[in-house]
Each structure stands twice: as structure tokens, then as C-alpha cells.
Design goal:
Oligomer: single chain
Number of helices: 6
Helix content: 10-25%
Strand order of the largest sheet: 6-11-10-7-8-9
Strand content: 25-35%
Order of helices and strands: EEEHEHHHEEHEEEHEE
Structural class: alpha+beta
Length: 264
């Protein structure tokens, strides 16, 4: 993974417009950020501090402050737990220049004080499949019984995907429920994945799509409680994040993650 898409929500954390506004990547020894067409079309969006020019290509040897502030400092006592919650093992090198991209790609860089989040640019893995790791959303809206069931989950447990068209916050929401024992709602896939899931579902046989539990972090904050992995075939013609709102505003900017491989 060397590229992330940057999204903004307006109107509050649970309502209002949502959409991609930028792209962050790392290549050739430098971090680069550009705004995408979504920054022009998303109502109420304001450019990031110190990066007000939508037409500019921003480059830096260090991670830009607006993204660096979304990483837990290594000096925090829970830093190692933070990496463990996100699925990184002892071989992970936090000093690698790509480490911030990898961490933000799982944690989404969400903070309670604003409405920005980041997510990976999907690319095929080494065998041409769709792979994505994510933390389950919406846990704070679940009843106590769901939280009890969640704490009892095991790694590798398969979850079922369900459309939730009556969801007041997002009519395209994808709910997740257990498939073993009593069927229970245990959260939602991140909003940025919903469109991909329905595109993949229409082009893949259900047996070639799965969401399984990667980690259950009973000692983590709610937003990092349940880490899942999604695997799917990559249908012919499938092009995630290819709509106009994802296109970089500056002319001639290459989309660097195309044709590369995601980390399995």
C-alpha cells in the first residue's frame, strides 16, 4: 500500500454530505498530496490549513501535519497495543517511510474533533483478488447483547453482509451479522466500502466473497474493537474509485497505485 484517499464529511459525524476530497501517497522518497474533483463538488468543504490551493501539488520529505496528527505518537504507553489492534505484528517497522500510510490505511485517521477520514486505494493482490482490512463501524449504536457476542468472536469467524436500505444515515449501508449461533447484528462496513461491495457482489459468485474476523480487541476503544478482512474476486472491468470525484485536480498527476499490488 502506498496511496490513500482522503474523505471529508459535512454536517456532523453522523449526517450530512460525505465524499472524497484528496489523495495522499508516498513515492520516490517523498509524500505527496493533491486535491481531487470531490473537493470542488462537496458542499461545505474547506481546504486543509496550509494547503488552501486546490490546484497545487504538495510534496514533503515528512508526512503533512494534517495527517501526522492522526497517528498515535510512539511515546504513548499504548502505542504497541495500537499497532496490535490494527493487525501489525512484531516485524512491522514504524520507522519505515511507508509505515504512516499503512497505519492510516487501517485506522482511517479518524479523530473525534473533525470529520476527515482516510482509506486505502484498492488494488488487486498478488493473485488478482480484492483484499481490504477495516475496522467495523457503528458499534456505539448496538445493543448490549451485540457487544457481548462481539467479545466472544474468534479470529477467522465469517460474517454475513446485509443491505440496510432503511438506514437513516446511509441508504446504501452494508450491515454485518454473525453466521454462527444466533444471528446478530455486529456493526457495519465503512461507508467508503459500500459501493465496492455491491459492485463486487454483482460480478462475483457469493462463494468468492467473504468477510472474516481478523482481530477482536476487547481492550481497545470502540472504533478499533473489531478488525475484519474482506476478500473477493476482482471482476473484469471492475474499477474502484474511478468516478469524477476521485480524479486529481492538478493536470498530469498520475494515479500511482494503479497496476501495483496491495499487501495481503
Amino acid at each position: 500500500m502506498n496511496a490513500l484517499l482522503v474523505a471529508s464529511r459535512t454536517g456532523g459525524p453522523d449526517k450530512g454530505g460525505w465524499g472524497p476530497v484528496g489523495r495522499l501517497d508516498y513515492a520516490d522518497g517523498a509524500y505527496r498530496f493533491v486535491y481531487t474533483q470531490g473537493a470542488r463538488s462537496l458542499q461545505g468543504f474547506r481546504p486543509f490549513h496550509g494547503m488552501e490551493d486546490l490546484n497545487q501539488i504538495y510534496q514533503s520529505d515528512e508526512l503533512f501535519p494534517v495527517f501526522k496528527n492522526r497517528l498515535m505518537p510512539e511515546s504513548r504507553p499504548e502505542y504497541q497495543a495500537y499497532l496490535r489492534w490494527s493487525g501489525f505484528d512484531s516485524s512491522f517497522n514504524p520507522d519505515d517511510p511507508l509505515a504512516p500510510i499503512s497505519i492510516l490505511g487501517v485506522t482511517e485517521g479518524i479523530r473525534q474533533t473533525d470529520y476527515i477520514e482516510v482509506f486505502p486505494c484498492p488494488v488487486p493482490d498478488l493473485v488478482g483478488c480484492y483484499v481490504n482490512k477495516f475496522f467495523v463501524h457503528g458499534l456505539r449504536y448496538l445493543p448490549l447483547s451485540s457487544h457481548v457476542r462481539l467479545s466472544q468472536m474468534e479470529e477467522g469467524e465469517r460474517l454475513a453482509m446485509m443491505p440496510d436500505p432503511w438506514n437513516e444515515s446511509d441508504s446504501s449501508a452494508v450491515a454485518l451479522r454473525t453466521t454462527v449461533g444466533e444471528r446478530m447484528l455486529v456493526g457495519y462496513v465503512p461507508r467508503y466500502l459500500a459501493h465496492d461491495i455491491w459492485e463486487l457482489y454483482s460480478g462475483c459468485h457469493p462463494e468468492y466473497m467473504s468477510i472474516v474476523v481478523e482481530r477482536v480487541n476487547v481492550d481497545a476503544p470502540l472504533q478499533q474493537r473489531l478488525l475484519c478482512r474482506m476478500n473477493s474476486c476482482w471482476p473484469e472491468g471492475f474499477q474502484p474509485c474511478s468516478t469524477e470525484e476521485f480524479r486529481p485536480i492538478p493536470e498530469g498527476v498520475a494515479v500511482r497505485c494503479e497496476g501495483e499490488h496491495a499487501l495481503a
